[in-house]
Design goal:
This protein is mainly α and 300 residues long. The chain has one domain (20-298). 78% of the residues lie in helices and 0% in strands. Helix 2 packs across helix 8, helix 4 packs antiparallel against helix 12 and helix 8 (188-209) runs antiparallel to helix 10. The longest helix has 35 residues, at 4-38. It is globular, with a radius of gyration of 19 Å.
């Protein structure tokens, strides 16, 4: 007879995983329009740095209280996780959105599960199924179509800024697998807060010494509202969402955790349309191929 307690625990864990997945999708799907708002005043580097610093300050009390939980070897792992999962993508996404609509950026973010699968198979001994290869090829076809679709819908040329989003998805894929298989003994809040604590100093130094952030805030009274959007981006989309995401990784599989990207593009597109962005046939077809590829690659 099946163990009823075990079945109940499994059902509860699965329900929590689904709830976390939906909440994360809504938060991250909104992040692209928040970046767009911030970029109306601030430079891409400032957007990335503000996002990291705001997230770190929000979780600073948690980080300080949890330092006693980690040992010397954990610092390097958490710094690497922070760079791959937060720092580098924050700058890559902000730069990409200077030449891409927020909706398109959100659609390309759907490549995260495919990147997760590739990294897991190549570097973490995860089983690579033939079905996954087919899904990856479909997703890549959608990516090529998307990055070659111009704003008006015609196909031609390559938007190299889309490569920055792909690189960010690869960073996410590395981090998801790294947390799942290399940071197994720390809680999600500890991982996120301490990782942010470690990557905040370079972000703060860059923001204050190498960008016009101080002069922009001092001279431009219209800068405070975009700054508020970026602080919200850091608090919600980086600190809170990363805590939830790391928790999701712990109680599910890397592929399931990265599957939030099924819903993220829908949320991003809705915000983009509300902001008068336009999606052409090429964009829609590319999104459909990417999501279909992710589904096939992830299907059991």
């Amino acid at each position: 007879m099946p163990n009823r307690t075990t079945e109940n625990e499994y059902g509860s864990s699965k329900a929590i995983s689904i709830i976390l997945l939906i909440v994360l999708s809504l938060i991250w799907g909104t992040s692209f329009i928040l970046m767009k708002r911030g970029l109306t005043v601030f430079q891409p580097g400032e957007v990335g740095a503000i996002r990291v610093v705001a997230a770190s300050l929000f979780l600073l009390p948690f980080a300080i209280s949890r330092l006693k939980e980690i040992n010397g070897a954990d610092y390097g792992k958490l710094f690497f996780s922070g760079m791959m999962g937060i720092f580098i993508p924050a700058f890559l996404f902000a730069t990409a959105q200077t030449r891409m609509d927020s909706a398109i950026t959100g659609i390309l973010n759907s490549l995260t599960p495919i990147c997760t699968l590739l990294v897991g198979s190549l570097f973490f001994q995860q089983r690579f199924r033939s079905q996954a290869v087919f899904g990856i090829l479909i997703g890549l076809a959608g990516t090529v179509l998307l990055i070659m679709s111009r704003t008006g819908g015609q196909i031609g040329g390559v938007n190299f800024y889309a490569m920055l989003v792909i690189l960010a998805c690869l960073c996410y894929g590395i981090n998801v697998n790294f947390i799942k298989f290399r940071i197994t003994d720390l809680k999600s809040v500890t991982i996120t807060s301490v990782a942010l604590l470690l990557i905040a100093p370079p972000a703060l130094i860059y923001l204050l010494l190498f960008t016009p952030f101080i002069s922009t805030i001092s001279a431009n009274p219209d800068a405070w509202k975009p700054l508020g959007y970026l602080v919200l981006l850091g608090v919600m989309s980086t600190s809170i969402a990363t805590v939830l995401f790391n928790r999701l990784i712990k109680i599910s599989t890397p592929l399931f955790a990265s599957s939030s990207t099924y819903i993220i593009p829908i949320v991003a597109v809705v915000w983009g349309l509300a902001d008068h962005e336009r999606l052409a046939t090429g964009h829609i077809a590319g999104m459909a191929l990417i999501i279909a590829g992710v589904y096939i690659a992830n299907r059991k």
